[in-house]
């Protein structure tokens, strides 16, 4: 590639992500945050690993396959130190610019690089969180366990304080990340077919540092702690995205966040994304059987693992004197309640509603409209949960909120294992390890658009470039 084309690509790349004004600053930070060797990135990665280790936890890092290919020993070492590694594209490109077949080929190529380097993987996060509906099918068909692309934006930035330029930049980030609003539903993992989706929460470090120029560790620690409090109140998962290139810069802010999470009245589960994914999979197999044995008395059988908790609301558990408290599992007990302790569904309600309630852990049963008064909440949803993704998100969010606020008997599986109220995962995208990686990324993104021949050939091409 000649200098002119490279130059044009640099310009196009910078205009797309940050704007020209930020590009000069970005170039400078590349030289200060990366080095010509792995040393600086290694220090940053271990700063994050060591800090989390103090909290008996470990981080999840996502890396483009071509970058992994150039630094396999470093990646193997951090896996040995307890970190999880996920896939961040074959190269660092935006899947929204790729056809379905290209997404498939590049995802498969990335998987092959991970396998060839014996780096275990379970999850995928797209560069720029740039997922499409087709990406989800591609990830499912290639057997990915989870993806972590849905970006939930928390209202923790005082936008009135921002300059017009910063406001514009912030809006651009929200569009780029296809940001959605926080609620109980959007802050919980959820399945789409066999693929598990783990929501990530923004603003991330890049938005704060590069878009908003917020670099004070105390202020960043305060913002992240505020997000933690909101996620905690919703009982969801806070997945923070912190680029390891700012690992040292953000160490203090991250320590503040972890300390804040640890000081909540109920414990917060600090875990890797694969641990959270494994738990949600385990939880999805739990079963709740509720059989009437007498008026206002039910036998409850919770078929689940010992890590789970059964939540009982507005009912009395016989022989225990427990009211509205989490119960250890698996369990069989008798409960007294004025109504069936779950959600009633009309026969014509689409099966997707029952699937949602099961995944979310709520007891439910189908009953005729004449029996509706036997339920605290009886749903008649023949049109289901909506056609478009936006409609579904909105209806699911409203429904889960309605159930959580329900003033009626209800049995449900708690979202998190043991006695955890919420979850926190520290994740980071290793876009580059060295200065060379940063500049190769521009070449790689354009060469990845060259028609695909076969994987080994493509990998060799990348080796030649390196
Ligand atoms: Zn990235």
UniProtKB/TrEMBL annotation:
Coiled coil region boundaries: none
Gene3D superfamilies tied to this protein: Glycoside hydrolase/deacetylase
Pfam families, per database record: Polysacc_deac_1
Domain NodB homology, first and last residues per copy: 47-144
BP term (GO), one: carbohydrate metabolic process
Record GO terms (molecular function): hydrolase activity, acting on carbon-nitrogen (but not peptide) bonds
Protein name per the record: NodB homology domain-containing protein
Organism: Reticulibacter mediterranei
Higher taxonomy: Bacteria, Bacillati, Chloroflexota, Ktedonobacteria, Ktedonobacterales
